[in-house]
Amino acid sequence: MLMSALTGIVGDSIWVHCIIIVVGIMIVLGGADWLTKGAVGLAERMRIPQIVIGLTIVAMGTSMPEFFVSLLSALKGTPDLAVGNVVGSNIFNTYLIVGLAAAVAPIHILKSTVKRDIPFALLASAALLGMSLDGNITRTDAGILFLLFCLFMAVTLHYAKGQKEEVDVSQTPLNSWKALLFILVGLAGLIIGSYFFVESATQVASSLGVSDAIIGLTIVAGGTSLPELATSLVAAKRGNSGIAIGNVLGSNVFNILMILGLTGLVSPMEIQGITTLDFVMMLISVVLLWLFSFTKYLIARWEGVVLTAIYVGYVTYLIMNI
């Protein structure tokens, strides 16, 4: 409704939508900066590891655009857009976001992340791949996904409780209420900016005759992943590796287990247009992240470049086969 009112005032040309896309990106970047400051401040104040904040609060917040897009798409009868959005977002997150973040600054990985968090993301990806082989995500499938999400949250929070004493706190951590305000304002900016981006980018793509599946895997996935991209890049630049990698891993798990779990419970989905290659690319992305993480518990710049190059090749393949 907001987008319809806006375009009704300024027009509905491709150029207008391009301007809205740029504005959306600027809002997202500002929101990411506020969210990162607030998340780091909250982690320090509560003596919780940054990786846990990234896996929970930041990941849930930056996954809200995917949740709203997927739920509304399923309810509107366009499951390709819903599933493609999640699969495409996870591919975007792992290949491009981790790749670019590592290229900005090598990402240090905790041993616990390699032993617990990445395997859980791999389990979620493998579960979705297995469930998609029959071309449907039933309510039973969705229920299993959501139960796995509850397990993930329980394990993550249990880990947070046991690790509080090991957290280093800066000399002047943010006040708790100020940190929460930063997080809320940041999330609002991420969601609003992403909304403008996705709506305008989808309008541009539709006018060019691009299918729902391709729109979901690329433009909508990239747009709804702008919060993760902006947040992880800002976090990496600030040296907050825990927020950067936790945001990506947490978002990937949220996207599959929570978003498709809840969406599938509301409206079972028939998968059309999303190929086995797309699901396999999603699974391989987590495997590569896991392998790279074993090298001195660090994702080096060259490994980030490799991940980015794979994503560029994948998108090029999709475009060439439209």
Describe the structure.
This protein is an all-alpha fold. It contains 13 helices and four strands. The longest helix has about 35 residues, at about 15-45. The two termini are about 30 Å apart.
Structural class: mainly alpha
Instruction: Note the quaternary state here.
Output: single chain
- What percent of residues are in strands? under 5%
Order of helices and strands: HHHHHEHEHHHHHEHEH
Determine the fraction of residues in helical runs and give it as a percent range.
Answer: over 70%
| Unreliable residue stretches | 164-171
Give descriptors for this structure.
single chain, 322 residues, mainly alpha, two-stranded antiparallel sheet, globular
Topology:
Layout: H1 2-10, H2 14-46, H3 50-62, H4 64-75, H5 79-104, E1 107-108, H6 111-132, E2 136-137, H7 139-163, H8 176-207, H9 212-224, H10 226-237, H11 241-266, E3 269-270, H12 276-293, E4 298-299, H13 301-320
Antiparallel strand pairs: 1-4, 2-3
Summarize the structure.
Helix content is 81%, strand content 2%. The chain is built from 13 helices and four strands. It has a two-stranded antiparallel ribbon. Strands 2-3 form a two-stranded antiparallel sheet.
